[in-house]
Amino acid sequence: MDKKFTKSLKVIVVLLLAQIISACSTNQLPTATLHSSNTDDINSYKYLIGAGDVLNIFVWRNPEVSGSFIVRPDGMITTSLVEDIEVSGKTPTELARSIEDILGTYLRDPIVTVTVNSFVGPFSEQIRVIGEAAQPRAINYTQHMTLLDVMIQVGGLTEFANGNGAVLVRIENGKQQQYDIMIDGLLKDGDISANIDMLPGDIIIIPEAWF
Q1: Going by C-beta distance under 8 Å and a sequence separation of 6 or more, which residues neighbour residue 104?
Q2: What CATH number should be reported for the domain whose range is 30-44+123-206?
Q3: Cα–Cα 20 to 30 A to 43, which of 15, 18, 108, 138?
Q4: Residues sharing a CB contact under 8 Å with residue 117, sequence separation 6 or more, in sequence order
Q5: What is the pLDDT of residues 112-140, one digit of tens each?
């Protein structure tokens, strides 16, 4: 092989590696902080019913129309008196008021209570962890959930993970935002400031480390 060509090839490879290393070491995203900017959203969070939830609907003094119902994949349930009630995306209280309005056609002043016995929730509110987690998957959001809670549920990181290179994708005010998160700092160094609040619909992307 021509010596000049070999030398030029080496220079190109060195430059490419330098660019890769520089890109990996440059923090181009804001770092997520311990307390979310959407703290009000966290404190005011109300559970929304989703497909797969098991609902217990109690109609006072009307046991014949009370019972347990599974929310179908289309987000609806069928009760003793009414077919195809849309329930997905509603809070249990909102659903109770809707059922009262519907049953008012058949019963006098119905009083309805709705409780959730098995929680799944809307897919739009699940937290998704992809990449180099030990068990990448979607997790049901619960109020005041933190990054540490999420990492425990996915079994931590793989041996190939770049935890401090992870990215949090979040919708804020209708726009997609991205933040750096320090998972290695949290899990390996015990840096509690990295234990950020999670919000419904968050996505965590964990890249593979460069060796």
Answers
A1: 110
A2: 3.10.560.10
A3: 138
A4: 54, 55, 56, 68
A5: 999 999 888 899 999 999 999 999 999 99
